[in-house]
Amino acid sequence: xxxxxxxxxAALSAAAAAAFGAALLSTGCGDMEQxxxxxxxxxxxxxxxxxxxxxxxxxxxxxxxxxxxxxxVDLQWGGPEAAYSVxxxxxxxxxxxxxxxxTELRRSVGGPFGDDPALRKEILSRKADGVIIGIGG
Amino acid sequence: MSAVGRFARNLELEGGVPTVGASGxxxxxFKDYDLQYSNGMPIRYVAxxxxxxxxxxxxxxxxxxxxxxxxxxPMMQAIIDALTEPLTEEEQMEGMPGEAPPEPRLLGPDTEExxxxxxxxxxWTDYNxxxxxxxxxxxxxxxxxxxxxxxxxxRMGSRELTVEKAAVYAVMAGxxxxxxxAILAILTQAPSFGNSTSSMANMxxxxxxxxxxxxxxxxxxxxxxxxxxxxxxxxxxxxxxxILGDLRLDVGAYSxxxxxxQYNNLCFAENEEALPEGWEPLSVETGYARTDxxxxxxxxxxxxxxxxxxxxxxxxxxxxxxxxRALYGSAATVIMDPTVAGxxxxxxxFGTKAELGRWLSGNVEVAAGTFWGxxxxxxxxxxxxxxxxxxxxxxxxxxxxxxxxxxxxxxxxKVVVAGGGIQTTWFVTDFRFGRGIRIDDWx
Lengths: 137, 443
Prior knowledge:
The structure holds two protein chains of two kinds.
Chain A: H1 9-27, H2 34-38, E1 40-44, E2 69-74, H3 84-97, E3 102-107, H4 117-125, E4 130-136
Parallel strand pairs in A: 2-3, 2-4
Chain B: H1 3-15, E1 19-24, H2 25-28, H3 31-39, E2 44-48, H4 57-65, H5 75-84, E3 106-111, H6 112-121, H7 135-142, E4 152-156, E5 159-162, H8 163-173, H9 180-187, E6 201-207, H10 210-213, H11 228-244, E7 268-269, H12 282-285, E8 294-300, E9 303-305, H13 316-324, E10 332-336, H14 338-346, H15 353-363, E11 366-367, H16 368-373, H17 375-386, H18 392-397, E12 403-404, E13 413-417, E14 426-429, E15 437-438
Parallel strand pairs in B: 1-2, 6-7, 10-13
Antiparallel strand pairs in B: 4-5, 6-8, 8-15, 9-14, 10-14, 11-12
């Protein structure tokens, strides 16, 4: 047992139960007379305060994607086939509409819950200009 | 932090690479919450229609040629804009933002009716009647432990569940101070259900002397609404989990179906007195002594009943095996009446729970196509398969009709005995248990 022990277990239980019973009796209104319904009480707040986290800025954006290399990273959410063809369709769109954009499509081998250090290294070392990553679901 | 947000944050932060996160519209709506309390970086997203998985290529083409559901722009234009539009002032912000004022310790004074309404409006309850946590009641509940009110029982991110908050939730759920140490042990596992798009639930099993001390039901109707302690312990976990996890509907709670099991979390005690010789309680199998009072909190989704009496020509272990084929795999917990345990021990020779777990692990088979047809398996196990890890690499290459054994770890197949010896009934479930928590540590 950790912490302070002020009473024996049995005495503690008996004292707590008696106090709790008295507490229930002291605030119950039952079918409630008017005066009871209008009685005002104070209670403890169940809410837990959230502490916001430190803000981190985004990286500066590109002036254009024309002539740039964009990596597309499939996190395999839902499996290797779940979203891959969405990225292939994006590649097709760039080929047809912005042919100067180079695209590289990769699956992240760690999936959505793991990591892919080799892919991250590749993206950073080859100086990808931008990344499209997903598709979360 | 969402998976997409985590990856995008790393690339932006480590390499200064502009990144756009793509997610289904079902989860993108939670991005502001992620920003404030978890990620800290205002990731730029585009939102695809949901679902993406399981759709044919023609639908995917339509998604790409359609609109971003976040901005309303054509999808590809939205992606290009996310990579090129200059950063706003907010997107360049760094350091600690202004804090919202902390929650006051006390609420009121107000009428009980108004406070009850407030508790429902703030989504602090399960919408069944609660007991309002007055200072007197909470103080009495705190008398059930020697722990200090400011001690932390569990955390979620920066949110801390203290002993005093736990006492508040215990009062709300209708608990007695005697229950409080067990409640504190259970709440070390909060929050659990709810913070997933899948519809998870929990199972709480109590072992040891506390079962009798608290008046828990492990016999007839152990899983039904027939025991104050079973009901209240399970309910407290729900109330605490909702508040600690900030599981407000469509804010932090986004399980697509939810689960009715979340009202009570399948809270019951194991019928240790009726265990066959050689069969140890769940807590003992995870390393505790029989004299320890222990709560174990499992997590899973599914519950399938055998419905009727055991049959001699297709005995319980064989039907359990058959029904386990409907589970996604990986982990299972079988809840069985003592009469079933007796049959399995005395007639079919399973000398221990572990022997039965090993037999089930080695004999439950499903088609590889069925295994990979489950989205949890595909999402979690495909990355391992693609990295060459066995058996998943072989299973991924196998023809879909090939039989595989999805319960690869016999130790993850658990057995819990409960019930009144009235019918030879059992449930198979996919709940996964780790090691339990000693109740006496919270006295």
